[in-house]
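Task card 7
Instruction: Convert sequence to structure tokens.
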Amino acid sequence: MTQDKIFKAFRGPQRHVKRAMSTVQRKRRNAFRTCAAYWKQSLTQDERLLWLEFSNLFETGYNAFLRINLVQVFNGLPIISVPVIYS
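Output:
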């Protein structure tokens, strides 16, 4: 097999795995992306706020995980939690 064929052989299953992401994983990924987007927006507007969007389903577990990690990365910036869009 040539190198191109080897890469094509790997490419198909990887796409399938990505499509097979569970609902929980998808919601967590989307929640983290919105967090990052709000961080960028708040920093560009010179606001010292993060609007953290999260699902009520993950409010205790995953929201706590995001709080811990974001506070460690961005020291001193307060976090405001806003219950919003993922259900």
